[in-house]
Design goal:
The chain is mainly α and 215 residues long. It is built from six helices and two strands, in the order H-H-H-E-H-H-H-E. Strands 1-2 form a two-stranded antiparallel ribbon. Helix 1 runs antiparallel to helix 2. It is elongated and about 80 Å long. The termini are far apart. The relative contact order is 0.11.
């Protein structure tokens, strides 16, 4: 009996259940069979030297100058003209409304409203209006929001870095609104078509009004 005889059935395969022999000329492979690459554990690879590690979600730089042809890029969503107008009117109502209401009380108590002079209630209203105007300006400089801006969900910030203006610069911006009224009130309408929704006062003081969460 010869294992090399092709007619011999025993020469084709080794008996079932017995370990086979490798073909002649092929050396046996020692050790265990290779496995797939195991998953990698431990800490993630560090950034190259000189590059600081990045944490959290990527953030968009506030106030970055836009690339050519992309006006307003790098800025948060800008408040539109209607929001700015609504905030301004609400502030005027908060400041001047009680003053005029107290003045009407004086008129109602006078004998001749046509010739009546400002009384005590109107004087109290004037003091209130001045104090409230100062308080709203303080809020706008410190937080970027007057009461009206807060209700409408908008806020005033420096264009360069997104920080509030501070009381002094907020006061300067109020004075700069003279420019908005000087040219037939055109500056107040300028945000309707300006690429950064700015009035003349905003451009002089380098400020923008952006959208924020209400309340």
């Amino acid at each position: 009996m010869s294992f090399g005889d092709p007619n011999n059935p025993y020469s084709q395969q080794p008996p079932q259940g017995q370990p086979g022999y490798p073909p002649q000329g092929v050396p046996p492979q020692p050790g265990y069979p290779q496995q797939a690459t195991p998953p990698q554990y431990g800490y993630p690879q560090q950034a190259p030297q000189g590059v600081p590690p990045q944490y959290g979600y990527p953030q968009q730089q506030y106030g970055a100058y836009p690339p050519p042809g992309m006006p307003g890029a790098g800025l948060p969503p800008l408040a539109h003209w209607g929001q700015r107008l609504g905030g301004y009117l609400l502030d005027v109502l908060i400041i001047a409304g009680p003053m005029y209401a107290l003045g009407f009380i004086d008129l109602a108590g006078s004998d001749d409203p046509a010739t009546a002079e400002p009384g005590v209630f109107f004087a109290i209203g004037v003091v209130y209006a001045l104090g409230m105007a100062f308080f709203q300006l303080y809020l706008e400089g410190k937080t970027g929001q007057t009461t009206g801006k807060k209700v409408l969900g908008i806020s005033l910030h420096r264009e360069a870095d997104g920080r509030p203006l501070g009381f002094g610069m907020a006061f300067v911006r109020k004075l700069a609104h003279f420019l908005d009224s000087f040219a037939c009130y055109l500056g107040w309408l300028w945000p309707l078509w300006d690429e950064k929704n700015q009035t003349f006062a905003d451009k002089v003081c380098k400020t923008v009004v952006i959208k924020v969460n209400k309340g």
